Amino acid sequence: MPEEHLEKSIIIGVQRKGVPSWEVSDNLDELEQLVYTAGGIVFHRLVQNRPYPDPATFVGTGKVKWLAGQVTANDIDLLVFDDDLTPAQVRNLEKQVSCKVIDRSGLILDIFAKRAKTREARIQVEVAQLLYLKPRLTGRWQHLSRQVGGIGFRGPGETQLEVDKRVIGKRIGQLRKELKRIENARSTRRKRRHHLFKVALVGYTNAGKSTLLNALTHADAFVEDRLFATLDPTVRSLRLDSGKKILLIDTVGFIRKLPVDLVASFRSTLEESHQADLFLNIVDLAHPHWEEQFARTEEVLKELELDSTPQILIFNKVDIVNDPVLLEGLRNQYPEALFISALRGIRLYEISKSIARFAEQKWERGSRTFRPDEAEEIKDFEKKVRIIGRSFKDGLIYIDYLFKIKPCQ
User: Residue 145 and residue 369: Cα distance in Å, rounded?
Assistant: First the structure.
């Protein structure tokens, strides 16, 4: 079989005033990994110092001319920008450099299109891609072949370029209805396992969540040293030493600048995390900027209103961390955290013991009254407790619920 063509790319970032250079460099390191995951190679990385992006081409006129020369001289297939581009910026750049131009959001969407396996994931990606594509239709690729293909144009990107926006809007509506049906079926499955204690593995992409799931449950979840190896939530059972059965849920990894439309489209999948009683927050301690990844995970959990869920902090890949001062400092800073290697099976027994401490805590019964106009308050309250009854009397809503007594620390 012929080898797959690796598209040659240049990745581009802008060094803004007040942004540390290491942050720009780290973002481009991650962008290079994304290009590799999508099936490309990075020929060159460019950073331009600018107080703010150029409204017409994001980078300055001189850099655009330089990029055009590089595209011609080195057969560059693709320019990838680390920040979101406007439709006008994409069109202006494409006219001047004569190759494909995409941004980080477009690249992530392309990877999701490549990785989506289940019908739900494929629909979710298509919705996000169509929302991303819709404002970018007008005049795009008039100077190139219509059958461009490759990175940035998988999934609906290859077939919807000439589709009118009204048809795209109709397609999005149809897909959302289908997602609703799938979500209802998922909700039914959740209800059947409502009595089981649920633990979700969360963390930055490529932190080792799927490896840990396999190690704990002897499952066969897909593992690969690329970003976004897991898209669909994988649910596996685990029996604790006490005999109690719990569920472990592997989830899609977080990342910087995750496209808003993609997060919105995957909300039903992320609902699995909303149902979790406990999080295992996995941190890749071997990554040079694990602190920023950890902070981003915490930000995403807060954005998704999941920051109130109890969590066990797990520092993974300690087998390749040769810094005893760092490890000792973290043990003092996070005395409840666990230090493991999912790949080598180091200290995994501590995870089961910690989960058991949360899973075997007691439930208490409570009752609370709401006014009918307190819909938001009711919604927030229901996220924190288990509802067992609801009644209406004298114009008020009475809710009976169970709440957990926190375990002794």
Answer: 64
Q: pLDDT, tens digit, for every residue of 24-43?
A: 888 898 899 889 988 899 99
Mean pLDDT of 158-176: 71
pLDDT, tens only, 303-348: 777 777 788 999 999 999 989 999 999 998 888 899 999 999 999 9
Q: Which residue has the tokens 């409204």?
A: 55
**Secondary structure E strands in 289-385:** 311-316, 338-339, 363-370
Q: What are phi and psi of 186, to 5 degrees?
A: -65, -40
Instruction: Using the predicted structure, report yes or no on whether residue 105 has a pLDDT greater than 50.
Output: yes
Report residue 317: phi and psi, to 5°.
70, 35
The gap from C-alpha 331 to its chain's centroid, in whole angstroms, comes to 28
Residue count of the chain, please give it.
Answer: 409
Tokens of 241: 């030493």
Q: How far is CA 131 from CA 70, 164, 260, in A?
A: 31, 13, 10
Helices (DSSP H) in 103-201: which residue ranges?
104-115, 119-133, 156-159, 165-192
State the Cα–Cα distance between residues 302 and 312, nearest whole angstrom: 16
Which has the higher per-residue pLDDT, 375 or 114?
A: 375
Question: Is the pTM of the predicted complex or chain greater than 0.90?
Answer: no
Q: Which helix (H) or strand (E) holds 331?
A: helix 324-333
What the block records as the tokens of 61 is 């006129």
Q: Are 29 and 11 in contact (CB under 8 A)?
A: no
Distance CA 386, CA 175 (A): 31
